[in-house]
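Onboarding guide, step 5: your first structure request.
Type a short instruction followed by the sequence, for example:

Predict the 3D structure of this protein.
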Amino acid sequence: MQKIIMYSTSWCSDCVNAKRFLKEKNIQYEEIDIDKNESAAEQVINWSGGRRVIPTFHIIEGDNSNSVVMHNPPLNELAEVLKVSY
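The system replies with structure tokens like these:
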């Protein structure tokens, strides 16, 4: 079972495209707006090595022992990790 957390903002066009893709594929996800959640913004900055990159995806497999963080991935790469067709 996968849990997908998408870190985004309301003004980000890449975020809009990623959300559209996830909706088209019927993929459930949790969205966190980093403009409204400072600790989430700090987490994104830590993961990215000092940059505020959105959308950032935290994809957790099963019991949280295996997770992937992706920073503004091309949709075909996101599809590959999520194991859906692009």
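Each response can be followed by summary notes, for example: The domain at 2-82 is CATH 3.40.30.10 (Glutaredoxin).
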